Amino acid sequence: MCCKISLINTNWYYLYKVDLKSISIKIFNTNFENVISIKTFKLNSNMSKSIIELKSVNIYQGSNTVLNDVNLSVEKGEFVYLVGKTGTGKSSLLKTLYGDLELTEGEGWVAGHNLRELTWKTVPFLRRNLGVVFQDFQLLTDRNVNENLKFVLKATGWIDEKLMDDKINDVLSKVNLAAKGNKMPFELSGGEQQRVDIARALLNSPKLILADEPTGNLDPETSDEIMQLLFHICKDFDTTIVMATHDYMVINKYRARTLKTEGGRVWDNATVSSHL
Ligand SMILES: Nc1ncnc2c1ncn2[C@@H]1O[C@H](COP(=O)(O)OP(=O)(O)OP(=O)(O)O)[C@@H](O)[C@H]1O
Ligand SMILES: [Mg+2]
């Protein structure tokens, strides 16, 4: 609840309710005696600075509570690490954000989508606004890079062949793989496969990328290359990135806000030791 009073012309404007979805204003007469009207303005995602908002969220895996009372706000264009010991809920939190785990308690908004209102019909709309990057790449092994990317475009409603080809060339050049479109996944190094995975996440020009241990399977030098790419995407395309990681070297070298899962809670601006 918030209250701010202003005198505009001859009426008093009393801001009396603000939540994630709307703000409400009561308009009083000059003497502040009678309510002339109440106006409620719906907020859309463009009006808010945050791309992720969680309030009093509890996250479950089956009947077990994984995370309690999660309150989190991530702004557009931020880079945020998510660290914590194995089994403390990093992937569960990311899954909640991309609609793979149902949100049943608390309030949650991601890229303008209300997580409480997601259904199997509306999850694809959320997914079109974000890109997800995994540790194990998850490329289709029976088709080349171009066909892997086209498969995703078709699945998200693209039809025009020329536009699809242009988009594929665009995302492959963003990850410096313009020359590798005809390669099969097994013909690529681990780092190149991870870059294809990032290219796939960029296909629908997302404002948010959720990355679950994207450097988990890579050697230090290749991890470095992927981190430079992710920071470049964040900075140059104003893309928010939330990245779960155990990689202390990476966190130490590429500094950013760090969330930590521990003891069933999410801690903000965590200090990180080398034992992740
Ligand atoms: N599909 C599932 N069904 C039931 N329990 C699960 C499932 N997935 C994860 N869990 C449990 O939820 C808890 C949190 O798991 P989660 O995968 O979110 O942890 P994590 O922090 O990502 O771990 P890691 O660092 O190993 O990836 C663990 O106790 C795990 O056993
Ligand atoms: Mg995990």
Report on the structure:
- This protein is an alpha/beta fold.
- The chain has 2 domains: 4-43, no CATH class; 49-267, Rossmann fold, CATH 3.40.50.300.
- The protein has 7 helices and 14 strands.
- The protein has helices at 90-97, 123-128, 145-155, 161-174, 190-202, 220-236, 248-253, and strands spanning 4-8, 11-18, 22-28, 35-42, 50-61, 64-75, 79-84, 105-110, 113-114, 130-134, 208-212, 240-244, 257-262, 265-267.
- The strands form 3 sheets. Strands 10-11-12-7-13-14 form a 6-stranded mixed β-sheet, with helices on both faces. It has a 4-stranded antiparallel β-sheet with strand order 1-2-3-4, with no helix packed on it. Strands 6-5-8-9 form a 4-stranded antiparallel β-sheet, with helices on one face.
- The protein is globular and about 75 Å long.
- The relative contact order is 0.15.
- The model has no long low-confidence stretch (mean pLDDT 89).
- Bound molecules: adenosine-5'-triphosphate and magnesium ion.
- Residues 61-62, 66, 84, 86-92, 261 line the site of adenosine-5'-triphosphate.
